[in-house]
Give the backbone structure.
Amino acid sequence: MDEEYGFNFKWNESKWLTRQSLLVRMGNADEYVLDEFFRKYLPFIVMIAKKVKLSYQDTKELIDMVYDDIRTKGIANYSGKSRFHTWFNRVIRNKIFDIWRKHGRVKEISTDDFSTQEEEAAEDAFSNDCRAVWRDMLRYSILVELKEELPSSHYQAFYLAAVQGRKSEDVATVSNLSAANVRKIVSRVKEGMLLRYRQLQKEYPLEDMNMDELLEKAQSITQEYRKIQKEYSELFQ
């Protein structure tokens, strides 16, 4: 642990894929574990719903359907043979197709087999949406981990200076740090972000990004999340 900056730069594996303890506990999930699971993955469900243009009411129904399915079955159907996100995508997809059927958007078909071009196109589009949202979730997970690990003033300094692009002198005043320390913190945290992103690339096909591109994407994702949390505030309580 870096004592001065409060950050572990010897981080070697993604918390995103190594949060297996939560998945293991989901095998015999009580309400507390279930709530923890949904606090973590609710944004993903909402973002998928927005991608496929579900209404607000249909999004609420989707969340209830996924919640009830996992509350009833736990993750017993997740064998571990595929990646977790592949299994979770399918759970969400099946419920979305149920909603679409209700509205007559797709025919009464199996949730596992797609035989017509129209159905295959819908499946392909949904898969592409899921992959795009999951990539955003992975990138956002880096910011979440940083916020959890860094002292609040250091994370604030990093976010204001690196993500929002404010001057170090202005950030120093807000964060009660010297401008020199703001610059040091930003430099070290950027280094950590790139290390973590490179690790995530080993675990999931993420495109190459330089630091500026990664920071721009981080700001975009953060803004989208805040918008979702505001729009769907009652679901995030």
